[in-house]
Amino acid sequence: MPFRDFYGDATVPFGSLPSLAAQVAALQQIEGVSEGSRDFLVRLSDLISYAMQRGKSIEALAD
Q1: Interval 24-36: pLDDT, tens
Q2: pTM above 0.70, yes or no
Q3: For tag attachment on the chain, is the N or C end more exposed, with fewer CB atoms within 10 Å?
Q4: Mean per-residue pLDDT for 44-49?
Q5: For residue 27, what are the contacts with CB-CB under 8 A and spacing of at least 6?
Q6: How many helices (H) and strands (E) in the chain?
Q7: Cβ neighbours of residue 13 closer than 8 Å, sequence gap 6 or more
């Protein structure tokens, strides 16, 4: 479930987190990604891991 599919608030269900983690990991491997984008991806990966360890979904607010 890519974030590009959302234009408002969204929930990434716990069951979808492994797929999202794989997408983020793949993006981290792309050469030429800006430092800011890479930092965002690292933080997103950390958030996904945190949620997975606790069995929680992720709420994304479109603000």
Answers
A1: 999 999 999 999 9
A2: yes
A3: C
A4: 97
A5: 33, 41
A6: 2, 2
A7: 57
